[in-house]
Amino acid sequence: MNALLKRFLPKGRTAVIAVPFAWLFVFFMLPFLLVIKISFADLLIGIPPYTKLIEFKDGVVHLTANVGHYLFLLQDDLYVSSYLSSVKIAAITTLVCLLIGYPIAYYIARSNPSSRNVLMMAVMLPFWTSLLLRTYAMIGIVKNEGLLNNALIAIGIIQEPLQIYHTTWGVYLGMVYNYLPFLIMPLYAHLVKMDLTLLEAAYDLGAKPWKAFVKVTLPLSKNGIIAGCLLVFIPAVGEFVIPELLGGSDTLMIGHVMWDEFFNNMDWPMASAVTCAMVLLLLVPMAWFQYVQVQELEGKS
Amino acid sequence: MANPQQHSAKASQPAGADFIQIIDVVKKFGDSTAVDTVNLTIRKNELFALLGSSGCGKSTLLRILAGLETATSGKILIDGEDLAKLPPYHRPVNMMFQSYALFPHMSVEANVAFGLKQEGAPKNEIEDRVAAVLDLVQMKKYAKRKPHQLSGGQQQRVALARSLVKRPKLLLLDEPMSALDKKIRQQTQLELVNILEKVDVTCVMVTHDQEEAMTMANRLAVMSEGKIIQVGTPHEVYEYPNSRFSAEFIGSTNMFDGNVVEDEPDHIFVETPELENRMYISHGVTGPLGMPVAVSVRPERVNISHQAPDTKHNFARGVVCDFAYMGSYTLYHVKLASGKIVVANVSSLMLTKMDAAPAYGDEVYVSWSASSGVVLPK
Asked: Considering only alpha carbons, which residue of chain B is nearest residue A298?
């Protein structure tokens, strides 16, 4: 009886793995399949605002898949240029985050073990406030009569307020500020576990501190850099809130285009097509990230 | 242009007798003194071991030589050149780290070439020297491997090659065998010594394993609490320890505490509460009559017999309270009337000469010759 039960009940290992898989299936896979389905449908005035893909009429199953939205993505300049602009903004954000985040992560990883946790806490502290609130607060700082401009005018560095609010500069500022911890955390985790005798060995063999950093620390933190950059880049491409609040009319980002299609044009199929195309584009760096991680694991075993 | 004065200065020195001079080196960490006024001279092409238990300051001294720590005070001269002001990357010193510290992202070849590349040596010279040193340590066929693809012994050889390839004036070995299995240690010790002899390098090694120090080193220094206790060849330190610490740290020994009761130029008598009769030692000591001393007698110098030996001194009666067969010898613990336990290593040859090997609970006599006792100041 027991043996019979064992055959049909999932084993412990399978049962444990099944939980996250079921979660991902219900809340990620199914909705995404729905989005794919809608992207191949036609616009319709009604509820829901799109046509059915499969219809059963007079004993015949009709399958209609409309690829027009995808073709339109390529034809209309707006989509291509907003994709490119999103990638550019995300790339610059990632680069700036890396330039600021690497020294911070390095400093924290090399500081006294007792103060490390306090410093990491300080990096993560902003997460206790919602992204929306932090971005609103940013408006108060960068707007024409905001803290930053008033302070600079008071010191006498500038006479006219700097136009940051409602420009792409504002978007960069908000994005770098918000995404910086995502880069610092994985980088810190890599730097802190590095064996410092490797640096001593490099000095001993004649490498000056800077050379030892370039030849030893930097290559050994490569995977931390890649993980951090992807954690910034991937969500930054689809970012909506920050450019919406801080950016201007010239800030073209794919998240905004998607929002427009859904809520202004009520064109769900077109919006779904935009979404699917974006996910496809992001799959490339994500797959690469996965590949690098697997390589690292294989290298260790 | 050659400086004639410098030449004559060098020529006047005896051949490399004080190649490395460590003069009054002190290292303090906060309130604690890790290295306490150490003075040592190390000869050219010598394998010198710093021996001590963990925390005795031997590793700190090694790191000072490498430049990874700066001495609080004192001077270090290598070949007449003061090292104190040189950072590690400018010193003619290379170190083989305890954990080997091989760069995990570089191949064996690249690890070994690293030091030469920092020197800016020409590419073909680097290739030749790397190939030669990998050949020396028999790792040529693993040149393209990454460190994690090698066994512990292979990693050690790569680490050795990496620290030898720059032809340092001084090679430092930090616990070279500690990461290896006990089984392959002994073989590796001899291999390492052979390689070091081939390349004529002056070498300082740090170890807590007295057997390792005795197998490998030409001379060794026993360290305790930051101080040098004794310097000498393994034979000198083992046979003629200068202190209780040396005698007990290197090998095991029977220690008798007592007082000098008769002091002649060629012999002394020591009276100890642990033995019924006096100890007779065939060499004199300097010191007042009655001064407290400790007498060390090595277990392999202690003889065991069923009958009382034919002497008036240097023997005691006791009961075998423990024994262990070790193959080449048998270890006996003999409890004397005073409660003192005397350890004796009796060789298998000696045992076969006896009618019956002493067993547990047997009453036996332990004895030793007049030259076996080493008198140590208290």
From this structure: B148
